[in-house]
Each structure stands twice: as structure tokens, then as C-alpha cells.
Amino acid sequence: KRRGDAMRTNVIGAGLASLNWPLIQPTDNFGVWAVMLAASSFGLWGAKQRWGSKLGGAPLLSTLFALVLANTGVIPHVTPAFAVVNKFILPLAIPLLLFTADLKRVLTCTGRVLWGFLLGTCGTALGSMLAFSMVPMSGLGEHAWTMAAALMARHVGGAVNYVAVAGILNIPPNLVAAGLAADNLMTAVYFSALFRFARDTQAPDIDQAYDLKDPSHGVARDEAKSDVILKARLSNAFEVNKGSYALTVAASICALGTYIAGAAGVGVQWIIPIVTLVTVALATAFPKKIGGLAPSGEALAALAMQLFFVTIGASGSIKQMVSTAPALFFFSFVQVMTHLYFTVYAGEKLGMNRSDLLIASNANVGGPTTAAAMAASKGWRSLVVPAMLTGVLGYAVATFIGVGFGYGVLSKMP
Q: Alpha helices, DSSP H only, in 135-239?
């Protein structure tokens, strides 16, 4: 019996050895795309499940799923399909996410939350310096300060800024995946602390005194609610026509950004920052027309970002990810906790309301959707629209803040 088991084992081993690894070859374009889309769909499906939401949501689930597939020999680590995602699909996601980035509305409708957001950005910068000096990241080598800059951008804006800074600073996919996993775990800790702060926080006034001092703020807020926020950011409807228009506008912006980068003589990694500036300019100049494309555009952007996270996971190594993720988790912990406590306590010393400060912090770390959801769940109705707009502002500026602070400060720290 033992001899028979050994023979069967040898036959199976010989059969596996005779296969061409990976099972899906890099040149099998449809096979690679099928698995990429399946991994993307797995993340989106898993995020709707109770276990998936606890693990960190769709981006992390898709990244980890692709990481396992690549490290078990199902899909390749490198393939032309990944280059298509990185060079073409990812840049398209940037304008699709920024169609509501109307700076005039941001400056006139966010009120006190905007000041809290700026204070929170300072807190993230302070936390980045403190974490960089405290957490040993020598294992990352020359990429230590670049990862710190990318995580700083993540905690001023969102995942899209983390990705953009990682591309600009040429961070390897292994580290990008490890940073994403560590940060998702850290975000769960952050939200627990944030809602603990919010538990005994009084609801804000209805902004009566604020609007009496400057009635135009109230008018601007009403306008934002009527045509930009409620019709765009709060809509879940996908319209085929508007989806097509959104892709057309996004592709045109990317084409213009590529031309500007070429004319300026800068590298391709600067295309995304240029695209960000062009999109914000258009959203500010034509808020109703561009903002109306946001619901369909953001749905397409979500799919594009999911594909990018799949390529990050597939390009990574489980061994390297496990070895670097702990340091990145502790870095994020120090960075984000410093941000939160600095924002709350420094803001209160300056006479700001804790409710405004907590929503601003959420806009920094969580983004527009989670900040608005928190305001609504706490019954802070006057803060829902400012939370959304401030979160969008984070998307618009975080890439530049992360890169600038990285080069100007973090790269010079010992």
C-alpha cells in the first residue's frame, strides 16, 4: 500500500513537472485578462461580505488574490497586459475620480471643515516625520523615504494618491502591495479610535451664526447640494451615455497631459500629476457639465483601480511582502495616530469644534465617502456636504503634497 501511494505521488509530481509554468502564459492575452477581471470581481464581491469588509475591502482582497495566484504559478508575474493597465487604464481613473473637484465650491462650501482638513494635513506631515525617525525601515533600503511619502499621500487624500506617488517615485510593486496590506489593517485601527472620539462628541450647531456672517456660504452650499453633490456624488446610477462621455473626457485629458509632459521634457511618471491639474481646472471651470459625469465616471474608475490592484498583487512576492509589511504597519500606526491626536487636540486649542475636526480627519484618511457616511450616521447633517467636498480636495492635492514633502523633507532625514 505504501509503495502504491509513493507511485501515485511520483506520477502526480511528474505530471506537475511536465506542465508549463505558469499555467497561464504571459502571451495568453485573453487568459490573463480573464483572470485579472476575475480577481477584480472577487474583490468587489468579497467587499460586500461580512468577512471581506473586515479584511479591508475590495482593493486589498483583489491584491491578495492576485498575489496568491501569481506565487502559486497560476498567472505570470510579468505580462504585457499589466503594462496596458499601468500605462493606459490607471491614468484614465484619475480624471474619472475628480469630476467633482470644483475648487470654487470646495472653498465656499466646506467652511470650518476645510480648516480642520488643513490642520489634519499638518498632522499627517508631523506624523510622517515622527514615524520615519522612530520606525526602523532599513530593510526597505533606498525606498524607505519614498514609501513614507506614498503613505503620507494616502493619509491626506486616498488610495489613488498612494498609487500616483508610488508611480512617480518608482516604488517596486512588492512594496506597493505590502504598503497597501499594512495600511488597510491600520485603517481599521484608526476608525476604531475615530469613532471612540466621536462617541461623546456633541452635534454641531446648524451653522446659523456662520451663515449670518457670510450668507453667500449658505447659498453656495445649497447650490452644491442641488447640482453637484446630490446629483453626482450621492447617485449610484450608471448611465451608458454619460459613461461614454466620461471616458471620452478622461481620455482627452490624458492625451493632453501626455502632450504637456512631452513638451515640458519630463518623464512619463509625471503624466498623472499633470492630468490631475487639468481635471481640477476643467471641473472648476465647468462644474455642472463635468460634475454631471461623476456617477458613471466613478463607477468606471472603480473598475480601473481594481485592475491596477490586481497587477500590483500579481507582480509581488509573498516572502518579501511578509518581511516588509510589519514595518510599514507600525509606520502607518505612528503616522495616523499622530495625525488624529494632533488634529483633535490642536484644533480644540484653536477653538474649533470636535465634530468638524473628526469629519476633517476622516476626509484625510478615509476619503469623501467615509467622511460623509460618518457625518450622516452621527446626525451631523450640516457636515455631510463639506465632508464630501473636502475629501475630493484631498484627492486633488495629496499627490503633490506627498511628492513635495518626500523630496523636500523625508529624503533629507537620516
A: 144-154, 159-168, 173-198, 208-213, 215-223
